[in-house]
User: What shape does this take?
Amino acid sequence: MPGPDAALPHPLADLGFDGTRVDEAVAAGTDPAAAARVVRMDRGWATLQGADGTRRVRLRECPPIVVGDWLGLDADGTLVRLARRSLLVRKAADRDEPQQMAANVDVVVVTWALDTRVSTGRLRDMLVLARESGAVPVLALSKIDIAEPVDGLLAELDDVLDDVEVVTTSAVTGEGMDRLLAIATGRTIVLLGSSGAGKSTLTNVLLGVDSRETADVGRTGDGRHTTTNRELLPLPDGGAIIDTPGIRAAAAWEDEDEAEPESRFPDLDELAEECRFSDCAHHATPGCALDRAVADGELAPSRRDQYLAYVAERSTRQDARSAAGRQHARDRDRGGRTRP
Assistant: This one.
């Protein structure tokens, strides 16, 4: 199938449709010239960015998609989704199923505003989510102009900051903005954070325009939602940015059919095997190896607490999956419709 002149860049090269993508489109039996990227999704509709502009299509006419996906047209004129290079997906906040957030992202920028109480647990979850997407994680700490030094916070996050670049930013002084722009240029990035984390403000600065509504953090310290949908926007010097609504929960989704992912605390899992009792609670329990390590100064109490929270989360997730599996089997045996 003929494609664009190999000597010329694809019209959507600035949005990420590089030479490799052209080859993938041809291999999938689609015309690279007709490729389009999903730049926005609304109820029942998707907005696609093609070489000739944007168009809206009904979701029922599309394969399963999310913002950031690349689509092509096969010989029958049917929309097909090209292979994903990365996928940001979390466990839905109110049900045991995956929620896909963005696809084909190069960098996930986890954002946190330092003028609010920092939840190291939530930050840690978002960093794990970013890493497991297949993209490069970056931590952006905003509003540094009105915050205390962040050395203590970074020390608490040491176990998940391996190879993660940390950028402190301020929309007031401009600190860190040049570095974020360098990270973003020529790549697709997504901003991930709670409401009021400064995502829309950072987006405005990177775009060079005041395109996203912003709002102050409420008196309770909770952010107010100013982004209500996911939308991919082109950056002035190439690349794209996806601003997302704020999230309260960032638990990673683990497919029950996939192998169990590597533990975030493999050393403590190994240490826990030395406990006297197999059902040790790891806190004020006779013969607990973790308690002994804390008492001997070999394990920080804060890291022990982080591990216990992780173990509880892992156990809850496994119990929920088991219950969902049993319900699925009952529905199947009754011959009825499986619950969504």
Notes: Helices lie at 19-27, 120-132, 151-156, 177-184, 199-207, 266-272, 289-295, 301-334. The two ends are 40 Å apart (CA to CA). The first strand starts at residue 36 and ends at 42. DSSP finds eight helices and 13 strands in the chain.
